[in-house]
Design brief:
Strand content: 5-15%
Shape: elongated
Radius of gyration: 31 Å
Low-confidence stretches: none
Helix content: 40-55%
Number of helices: 15
Largest sheet: 6 strands, mixed, barrel
Length: 437
């Protein structure tokens, strides 16, 4: 029976090609605009590491004196001081933990064969790669001993390895960062995240870094950070050592807590640490505060998906509703014009239910055609977004979920729009049209 209804629907399209085309085009435009904004929103809000997002926690410590405020609603600093980050790294808690900061260097091979270029770097600790599921092509991560001794080693991204060494295994080779040489100990595979959740302070949708180096090199070589540095009181920091000992916030810190037992144990440690620091003259507050937020909570806390994006999605669905209102009028005109034919079919034994289902199949087919054309229009729209905003280059795309959602939304909304016209035409009294014949 379904095949029969599909055949009748196709014949109906051929009898009224202009009206059918206008309805398909209206649906396609509505779906195209809706899916453009919805796809960007979907990519922004997607869990970037679903297999671990509930185990990875960003650590925040309230180190400011009583009465001091921050720009977030809970007054919690977004990053840690260097001294707190180092102390938490050395904590007697057996779990993966990472301190890190963003930097950058002039990359070259100290030869005339390659022009120097700027590469973004992340100074971090060895657990970074395991915690954030960073895949390796060649080699591996540096050892804890190399971390402690500030060994001049580096892990390259696949992109920069292709540029420097034509994609070959470069483990053991030397590269120059500014005026210092470093040994390549590993190359990671292409690791592009839709949301750079591990460092939202430096752009949630920026590309991941190209170079990864021991965190201990930060102090040993006095590297500048390329991220935000914030302070809450006046401090004289003429030297790099002053900065390391200051109360300025510029280090990101993450910890992996696989279950509630480990999490509770780590929370107890944080409270004990803050109480100990309070005895040393820091954390001058009546109530000590710390926060552990997992990946999804951290993204929500930092407003990765802004209100503007949510409003844009709502407006696109409103535009789709306007398109469907126009389709409703066209369906009423088309279906009621078919009333004599329906009257004859009713007289020959067709039930109201059969007539109703036939017309719903027809509007569903309209929605399917409109949804498929809407995907094409959405791709054009997303291309325009990528060309206009480099920041959204990794977000302005449709994944499999969105590709499937487009025709489903189109079919569903078309069926909703066609319910009333289909119900109206199935109530046709066959006697009226038989007498007129």
């Amino acid at each position: 029976m379904l095949l029969h209804y599909l055949d009748l629907s196709w014949r109906s399209f051929k009898r009224t090609p202009l009206v059918s085309f206008l309805m398909v085009l209206a649906i396609a435009i509505g779906i195209g605009i809706t899916m453009t904004s919805l796809s960007v929103y979907h990519m922004m809000s997607t869990d970037p590491i679903p297999e671990k997002s509930s185990q990875l926690y960003n650590v925040q410590l309230q180190t400011m004196d009583e009465g001091r405020t921050w720009w977030k609603y809970d007054n919690m600093p977004l990053q840690l001081t260097y001294q707190d980050a180092v102390n938490l790294l050395n904590a007697p808690v057996e779990t993966n933990k990472v301190a890190m900061v963003r930097s950058g260097f002039s990359v070259h091979l100290n030869s005339d064969t390659l022009k120097p270029f700027i590469g973004g770097a992340r100074l971090t600790t060895p657990d970074f790669f395991n915690m954030f599921n960073v895949p390796f092509i060649y080699g591996g991560v540096w050892t804890q001993q190399q971390e402690q001794t500030a060994a001049p080693v580096v892990v390259l991204s696949e992109k920069i390895n292709d540029k420097l060494f034509a994609g070959e295994n470069s483990v053991g080779k030397m590269i120059y960062l500014d005026d210092l040489s470093y040994e390549v100990i590993g190359v990671i595979a292409d690791w592009q995240l839709t949301t750079k959740y591990y460092d939202l302070n430096n752009g949630a949708f920026n590309d991941t870094e190209e170079l990864f180096m021991p965190f201990s090199l930060l102090e040993a070589n006095e590297f500048n950070n390329w991220g935000n540095t914030n302070g809450w009181k006046h401090e004289v920091t003429h030297t790099f050592k002053d900065k390391l000992q200051s109360e300025r916030f510029w280090i990101q810190f993450w910890v992996q807590l696989p279950d509630e037992k480990v999490k509770n144990k780590y929370q107890d440690y944080l409270l004990a640490y803050m109480q100990d620091q309070q005895k040393n003259g820091r954390f001058n507050r009546k109530e000590l505060q710390y926060t552990l937020r997992d990946v999804k909570q951290w993204m929500a806390y930092n407003d990765v998906v802004s209100e503007d994006n949510k409003i844009l999605v709502a407006l696109s669905f409103m535009f789709l509703a306007v398109c469907l209102a126009n389709i409703l009028g066209l369906l009423l005109a088309k279906f009621l014009r078919r009333a004599p034919e329906v009257g004859v079919r009713r007289a020959l034994g067709a039930s109201k239910r059969q007539i109703f289902l036939q017309h719903l199949v027809e509007v569903a087919m309209l929605g399917c055609f409109g949804g498929l054309l809407g995907i094409v229009l959405a791709q054009i729209g997303l291309l325009g977004v990528r060309q206009s905003y480099d920041y959204y280059s990794s977000l302005a795309t449709m994944d499999l979920t969105m590709l499937i959602s487009a025709p489903l939304i189109a079919i569903t909304t078309c069926i909703l729009a066609g319910l009333y016209p289909a119900w109206l035409v199935c109530r046709t009294n066959p006697a009226i049209y038989l007498k007129s014949q």
